[in-house]
Amino acid sequence: MPGIDECLLEVMQLPGARGAALVDWTSGLALGTAGESPGGDHETAAAEAAELARLAAEHRAFAPDDPENSVADPPVEDVIISNRDSYHVLCFVRTSFDSSVFLHLWLARVEGNLALARIRLGEMTGRLVLG
Amino acid sequence: MTAVTTTPPPRLPVRDKAEARERAWGGVSPMLTRLAAERATGVLVRERGTLHLAEGRVVHAESPAAPGLGTLLTAHGTLDADTWRQAADEAAEPPGAGLLLVGRGRLTRGALELCHLETLYDAAYFALAPSSTPGRFRYTSPGRSGAVRAVPVAALEHETLRRRDLLHRIWPDPATDEAPLLRADTVALPALTARQRAVLHLVDGVRTAPEIARAMGRPAFHTLVDVRRLAAAGVLVRGALKPAEAARIETTDPDITLLKRLRDALESL
């Protein structure tokens, strides 16, 4: 059964993966990291990504219209950022206990496949907490 | 004729210079730093919580202010209370109980590690809070059940200081951290997040932030973040202290009572 480190190593197997981290978006703490860190420092990257994830998770504008789905905490599934050379995917981890955690994948734009990465991240975070 | 005797004024506390030098790098507990350096195994009991060390790394932390692993895992039905209690009775510490449950297929390794790290950093934040009494360390033999995750002392101290900063930046007044909370009379409520509404829902003039955290099965620091944000927005205020809480704060140490009287006088200026 995978722990946090095994999950991050699996994420790093994705084509084009440069770095990955499991981050708590309330505190900004990285619970685990693998590979390179965007910006050169895992701690700063985690704190900055946490700020962005928190905004996405909290603001009503990003929640689905359907009130049935809005009870999900957070109502957002993932946040995607692209720049000239890379993608960042922040995938929220759904847990049966109270948590505020997301998986941050840093993907090289040339080798990476954003659609595949997004689907695989969802599967991997599910396996991490649900087995 | 009566002789008038006055008690001498209390000595002013003086901080030990050697200790101050050691603190200059920003450490939170010089004793913990030493224990990490000597790769000690045992239990460090501090005023507001306990840290369990194995070969100089922190493997478990507890604080009365922070909900434990069992609370987190049972509050929202991840585990039922009986399953947790049985495992907790068999193991020496909550992480050991968690490992038993992983072995029995009741919990995934990932979920346990996540909850364990959250509760460890959470309890350590309170355990490493400034205290008025020195900590005590008891050396023990290594535990049998093994650790879920071991956190280096330096990383834990660093994160604790970062968390203090984070709270301070949200709202610099710690008054709402431990006191019973009251809703403020606000004309228009600002837009609140779902997590903040859950906190506010439990504010009743009696519960404190750590009690609200326990009731929600949410880490206490996470609750403090929302409480400070609600205080900053003017939605929450500190209520009256409970008698027991007031008595705990009402210390008999003459140095501290003098400092407190001075502070109160300055605040009322």
Question: Layout of SSEs?
Answer:
The complex is a heterodimer of chains A (131) and B (269).
Chain A: H1 4-12, E1 17-24, E2 30-35, H2 42-58, E3 78-82, E4 86-92, E5 101-108, H3 114-130
Antiparallel strand pairs in A: 1-2, 1-5, 3-4, 4-5
Helix pairs in contact in A: 1-3
Chain B: H1 17-23, H2 30-37, E1 42-46, E2 49-54, E3 57-62, H3 69-75, H4 81-90, H5 94-103, H6 109-127, E4 136-139, E5 151-152, H7 153-170, E6 181-183, H8 194-201, H9 209-216, H10 220-232, E7 236-238, H11 243-249, H12 254-267
Helix pairs in contact in B: 4-5, 7-10, 8-10, 9-10
Organism (chain A): Streptomyces justiciae
Protein name (chain A): Roadblock/LAMTOR2 domain-containing protein
Structure description:
The complex is a heterodimer of chains A (131) and B (269). The model of chain A has no long low-confidence stretch (mean pLDDT 92). The longest helix of chain A has 17 residues, at 42-58. In chain A, helix 1 runs antiparallel to helix 3. Chain A has three helices and five strands. In chain A, a hairpin with a 5-residue loop joins strand 1 (17-24) and strand 2. With 131 residues, chain A is α+β, with helices and mostly antiparallel strands. Chain A has a five-stranded antiparallel beta sheet with strand order 2-1-5-4-3, with helices on both faces. Chain A has helices at residues 4-12, 42-58, 114-130, and strands spanning 17-24, 30-35, 78-82, 86-92, 101-108. Chain A has a single domain (4-130), classed as Dynein light chain 2a, cytoplasmic (Beta-Lactamase, 2-Layer Sandwich), CATH 3.30.450.30. Chain B is an alpha+beta fold and 269 residues long. Chain B has two domains: 28-169, no CATH class; 174-267, no CATH class. A five-stranded antiparallel beta sheet of chain B has the order 4-1-2-3-5. A two-stranded antiparallel sheet of chain B has the order 6-7. Chain B starts with 16 loop residues before the first helix and ends with a helix. The chains are: A alpha+beta (131), B alpha+beta (269). The A-B interface holds A 1-4, 7, 22, 24, 26-29, 31, 58, 60, 73-75, 93, 95-101, 127-131 and B 72-73, 75-78, 102, 108-111, 113-115, 117-118, 121, 149, 159, 162-163, 166, 191, 193-195, 216-219, 221-222, 225.
